[in-house]
Design brief:
Length: about 200
């Protein structure tokens, strides 16, 4: 278990149900007092549902999976995916799939959706946040060189806007933290609505 900060006996317990280093870094922007307890939920998509519904359901499943063992805590679950029109583009399964995904996104605008859920001792709330990202037109060489860095392999849509993949971005609108994997403003709203003390959150 990762402990991000020292929590006293009276500090409300906050848990991030994800081992994503990107989500950990984003959560540290608003508090340094939380623990990381990864969820054991398998990230299975239901292609009969809209992308927004998929991320909300997976975020809730992840949070509830951890919260059952920590009933007195506030547990945060999150899930991110990329959608080109209504086609869901998740994490690539291999190098060939990463190349396929990036080729599909080349020169086009797509949506990045993150579902975020907070399970508290008294209530559970979730939401889905959408940002828009437009790629520049990519050559096969650019795609291959980027894949060789290894960065795309565990990312929804096979890229990281905050990493080496930033060179592919022509423009984006909406929350950047959402694109990275945890919409901070919306998370702060959910924490407040579930009764997490505002004095425990920065900003």
């Amino acid at each position: 278990m990762y402990v991000a900060g020292s929590m006293t006996e009276n500090t409300p317990k906050l848990i991030l149900a994800s081992q994503s280093p990107r989500r950990l870094e984003l959560l540290q922007q608003i508090t340094d007092q939380f623990e990381v307890v990864p969820s054991s939920v398998e990230e299975k998509l239901d292609y009969g549902l809209r992308p927004e519904e998929n991320v909300r359901l997976l975020a809730r499943a992840k949070a509830e999976n951890v919260a059952k063992n920590y009933p007195e805590c506030w547990v945060i679950g999150a899930d991110t995916l990329v959608a080109l029109h209504q086609e869901i583009l998740g994490k690539p399964v291999d190098v060939s799939d990463a190349h396929r995904i990036l080729s599909r996104l080349s020169g086009k605008e797509h949506r990045v959706m993150t579902g975020v859920c907070v399970v508290s001792p008294k209530k559970t709330l979730d939401t889905a946040v959408t940002s828009n990202v437009r790629f520049k037109s990519l050559t096969d060489e650019e795609i291959s060189n980027y894949i060789q860095t290894g960065e795309p392999m565990d990312k929804a849509g096979a890229y990281a806007i905050q990493g080496k993949g930033n060179f592919m971005i022509r423009e984006f609108s909406g929350s950047k933290s959402n694109i990275i994997g945890l919409p901070i403003d919306e998370l702060k709203t959910l924490l407040a609505k579930t009764g997490f003390p505002p004095t425990s959150v920065n900003g």
